[in-house]
Specification:
Layout lengths: L3 H12 L9 H8 L3 E5 L5 E5 L1 H24 L1
Antiparallel strand pairs: 1-2
Helix pairs in contact: 1-2
Length: about 80
């Protein structure tokens, strides 16, 4: 199970990968879970990228968020 910080980091990799500390603890955990991979830009700078598994996790979280939002609206 991912911690809230790991989920935040996963979202950051999706939206602003240049802001992620590539060799930090959170990125290492996401690499360990095969959610993120590190690639090198032509300049040699390491850049985190979502794997297919990482993209799938974010899609599921988005679907769950939408489901819960719809349930909350229906109960009002």
């Amino acid at each position: 199970m991912l911690s809230p910080h790991e989920i935040s980091t996963l979202l950051l990799v999706q939206r602003s990968p240049h802001q992620v500390e590539v060799f930090g603890q959170l990125a290492a955990r996401l690499r360990q879970e095969a959610l993120v991979e590190i690639t090198r830009l032509p300049t040699g700078v390491p850049m985190p990228l979502l794997t297919q598994k990482g993209q799938d996790v974010l899609k599921r979280l988005d679907a769950l968020w939408k489901l819960r939002s719809n349930e909350a609206e229906a109960s009002e």
